[in-house]
Every structure is written in structure tokens, then in C-alpha cells.
Amino acid sequence: MPTAHDWIDALGLEPHVEGGYFRRTFQADHRPPVRTPDGDRYTMTSIHYLLTHWSPIGHWHLNRSDILHFHHHGDPVTYHLLHPDGRHSTAVLGQDPGRGQVLTLAVPGGVWKASHLTAGDHGLISEAVAPGFDFADMTLGRVDDLLRRFPQHPEPVRRYCRPDGPDGPAGTTA
């Protein structure tokens, strides 16, 4: 069975600013771009995304685009979602429907999202993003900002916000 290191090597994955590893696998450059208020975007992009036992968290972030997540290999990945109406919901992306796991998860643009490897060595997923992903359309969560927006959910906000690091404080827009 392939390990996290095997997938990183085989897929050419690189560290992602939100945590884990990724590689873009598709961009619809054969189609006319989609006009958005922030500029033209591909109609769709996709990536492989990997959480590992040494990088198990995809920290809170907000995307403007809709994203479909697909579980491919390894251990389950738990998603935490903070909705614009203040709700917190979870879903587990994985291969065992008997345990309530789903193969596909849709996250609309405008919903805050964090994820973590539920257990084990790694969880490999892919994401399809429409309109296509652009780092200008992603905001990393800051504890103070998210606690102001979602004061009823302090535990998941604090647990899954990106800690300050050598690249500066958490929450800078990529």
C-alpha cells in the first residue's frame, strides 16, 4: 500500500500554504475564461491534495469558488465548515459508508473550511474548483477574525487556525 511519501513522490506534490501537499492537475485553458469581479478565471481547475501524519491539518480558509472534494486513497479526512449563517457542520471524506463517510463533498464558495486527517498515515483527495482556483480568491483564517464572526464555535476556530510562522501571521491572503 502506498505511503504518504510514495504519493508525494509519484504525484510531484508540494507543500500548500493551508497545510498538507498539493499539485494542480488540470486547468481549463482550452475554454474562454469566466469573468469575475476580481478578474478572469479558468472555468475549472483541479488538484490532488494530501494530508499526512506530519502535516495533518488543512487550516481554516475561505474560497470564493465552489469546490468538489473526492476521496481517493488512504485514511478518512474530516472537514469542518463554518457557514455564513453561523452554523458549524462536519463531514468525513473516506471509503467506508457504513461509518457515515462520503466519497464526495461539495463546499460552496463563501463557506469557511478546515480539514484534518482523522487517523493514520495519509488521506489523498482531489478537488475540482469552479470558477477555477486563484490564490487571490482564498483567505486564510485568523483566530481573532473568525472568533468575531463565529463566537459560538471557539474550539474548532482555535484548533484549526494556522499558527503564526516564519512566513508571517496566519490569515494573510495568499
TrEMBL record:
It comes from the Bacteria. CDD domains: cupin_YML079wp (cd06121). Coiled coil: none annotated. Residues 154-174 are annotated as: Disordered. InterPro entries: Cupin_DUF985, RmlC-like_jellyroll, RmlC_Cupin_sf, YML079W-like. SUPFAM superfamilies: RmlC-like cupins. Residues 155-165 have a biased composition (Basic and acidic residues). Pfam families: Cupin_5 (PF06172). This is Uncharacterized protein.
